[in-house]
Amino acid sequence: RASSRGAHNVCRLLSRRAHGFYARDAGVAHRINLGLLRKMICQESTKFKNVWTTHSASPIAYERGRIYLDNYQCCISSVAREPRILYQKPKCSKSEKIEDALLLECPLGEMLPSPSDYKPSLIVLTVQNWLLRLSADSGEILEKIYLAGSCCKFRYLSWDTPQEVMVVKSAQNKLPAAARQVSIQQSVLFYLAVFQVLPLSFIGMLEINKKIFGNSVTDVAVSNGILIVMYSTGLVRLYNFQAICKQFMEQPFDLGHEFNWNGQVGVVGKYPFGLPCNIKITDTPPLLFEASSLENAFQIGGYPWHYIITPNKKKHKGVFHICSLKDNALAKNGIQDMQCCSLEPDWIYFHPDMSGRIIHVGPNLIKVLKLKEVKNNTDQVEVAEDFTIVANRENCVNNAVTVTASGRVVKKRFNLLDDDPEQETFKIVDYEDELDLLSTVAVTEIGADGKAHLDFRCNDHGILLKSIPLLESWDVTYSHEVYFDKDLVLHIEQKPNRRFSCYVYQMVCDTAKDDERSSHEKAERVFCKKGGRLFEY
Which sequence ranges are marked TM in the entry (predicted)? Predict the structure, then answer.
């Protein structure tokens, strides 16, 4: 009896282990650690301190604990309390300029051909159509692929399937003015090159041709196995991208192998031949779905599947329709309109936490919506409010009539906009998936300075758990990005005349003595140079 019980326990353990329930599994330990980190972040004594700041004359990018400056020629670790330069390359020429980049991380549970494949790397696209894989920690070139000659200019990198399938897209092909004057026709609008990553392998390259897809195509994208084609009329059409590759693939090619293609002999991915255009779409593929939306704004998500559009008329800007993907039926309460009067429009999107919920953000209100079955009608879905977050405007006075100290009555000729800088206004809403926290940035202009604070909220109910003031002034006319990455907060600001600033905040558990020192912190900040770059502490 004891041995049968032991065998039963072993089988049960193996079954639970296969489903990810093994208590000593690294994933379980990681989740426990993240739970502890979340508690530490949200406790009252924890502060986020601006540990250092730097400035740049070129755009600043952030990816997973690494800050990239000087067109990816300089990489700084954001993990250390002081700036630690991981690598600094010589300034590149205009012909070596990087157009776009993606961070590539090692897939789990796969055998890879090279030891360097197990470490993070950066895929970059240069202005001369080179695709490079760089070590994320040293900047060393690990792989080089030449895409194409002067027939097209590749400009954009994106994921079809994150960390699995990558798409390189060209800029839209446009004829020179002289060619247009003599009525020369340009039928190829875009080129798409598709790669499997780690190990990096070539799937195929295809043309988006107006003879197949129509004259009014303005843009294309590939996401989750779907080819998305957008038109100047607001129309959005979806096609099965995997089926297109399978149906119209003329011949598969491997990187580094010799090929003979249309009279050309060369090596796949090597200069000067590049990649063959081996997927030739000769007929219009079967249409999966189409919708018409203002400015081609179209999103799919939720459970059951729904999509969000704005009716294709300018008067409907700011009105969102939530419809069933199955039969295009408008959900009950599916028209969402905040009716806000503001310079910047409200925005809506499916929650990135895969809960199927919807986030609708206005100047002073964040609504988290959910899809649920209508009572007594399982075939219909309704949009219901899960919770709302309201901006703190208690001190805001917007009376149409005021009385001066002398008793004179003054009537206002206009009302404040909903996103007037003097009122607290939501600017950024994001989700930290590892800590399951919703983050919001709200800004209020006080005198000449704008003051911003980053709030962490419970993702299930929207309850405020932590508020972090950002010390630097926030000008609402500038472009801003805020990243919340576990114990790190990063604020990147773009000022006029291509001036960029990066403010790094890190979690610290302050004592009472530290709190007393923090009021003098600004006056005591110092400057130092590292790798020829100026940092402010």
Answer: 188-208, 220-239
